[in-house]
Amino acid sequence: MAWIETVPEDEWDGALADLRRRVVDPVYDRVDHIMQIHSLDPDSMAAHEALYRSAMRSTKTLRKVDRELIAFVVSSINECHY
C-alpha cells in the first residue's frame, strides 16, 4: 500500500470541511482513503466526487445498485480494499 501524505480529517476546515459533508461515509462517519488522498488538493476531491456521482447515477439500462455491484466486483478482482 502506498503512503500518501494527507491532511488529517480532524484538521479539515474551509473547503475541505464543506467537501467532507459530501464525501463522508455516513455509516462510519469517516472519509474513505480513496478520497482522503485528495485532501491536499480540494479541487481534485471535488472533481473525483463529481465523477463518482455521475458514474453512479441511474440510467434506463443500468440501475445504481447494478453499478455499485460492478464496482465492487472489479475492486475485488483487483484486490482493491478501500
Annotation, overall tally of beta strands: 2
Mean pLDDT figure: 88
Count of domains: 1
Spans of at least 5 consecutive residues whose pLDDT stays below 50 are: none
Provide a count of the helices. Answer: 4
Keywords:
about 80 residues, 2 strands, globular
Describe the structure.
The chain is mainly α. It has one domain (11-77). 51% of the residues lie in helices and 5% in strands. The protein contains four helices and two strands, in the order αββααα. It has helices at 15-23, 33-36, 42-56, 64-77; strands at 24-25, 30-31. Strands 1-2 form a two-stranded antiparallel sheet. β1 and β2 (30-31) form a beta hairpin. The protein is globular, with a radius of gyration of 14 Å.
Write the layout of secondary structure elements.
Layout: H1 15-23, E1 24-25, E2 30-31, H2 33-36, H3 42-56, H4 64-77
Antiparallel strand pairs: 1-2
